[in-house]
Design brief:
- By secondary structure, the chain is an all-alpha fold.
- The chain is built from two helices and no strands.
- It has helices spanning about 1-20, 20-150.
- The mean pLDDT is about 90.
Length: about 150
């Protein structure tokens, strides 16, 4: 029995050495709870600050995108206005050129009509002169024929 009592005594000593007092365990638990609470509040604060930084960054990027979009619209509007102006100027230049060509065509038509009228007048003059010449020759020939017929008869 002595052995049994030694074993029990040794087991009790081992247990007392490894056991922690309730107050120490409570103190340790309280300290851990406080540490966890601090850690939780720090994590929430970091999460909150990260969220606010992310939201601010998002807002800034959204504003930048809106500004770039506005600038792009303005640039596109300017480019379209410039192209429209160029097209209108080109149309005006083409109209002016067409008017110039039309004027030249009318001048050419007038000159051609004048030359055709001059040629008609010359042809009529030549016809008249030829007709006069022909009538003169025919009259002269008729006179000669009548003169010769009278002589012969």
């Amino acid at each position: 029995m002595l052995v049994l009592s030694d074993v029990i005594e040794e087991s009790i000593q081992n247990l007392t050495r490894t056991m922690v007092l309730r107050e120490d365990a409570d103190r340790s638990t309280y300290t851990q709870k406080v540490d966890f609470t601090k850690l939780r509040s720090e994590l929430l604060a970091l999460d909150s600050s990260d969220t606010s930084v992310t939201l601010a960054s998002h807002e800034r990027l959204s504003n930048d995108i809106a500004k770039l979009n506005s600038r792009l619209r303005d640039e596109i509007g300017r480019a379209q206005a410039s192209v429209r102006l160029d097209l209108n100027l080109e149309k005006g230049r083409i109209r002016e050129e067409a008017k110039g060509q039309e004027l030249k065509i009318k001048e050419t038509e007038t000159r051609i009509e004048q030359e055709v009228a001059g040629l008609r007048e010359r042809v009529e003059t030549v016809k008249y002169n030829t007709l006069q010449w022909l009538v003169s020759i025919c009259t002269g020939a008729a006179a000669l024929i009548l003169g010769a017929w009278r002589l012969l008869m």
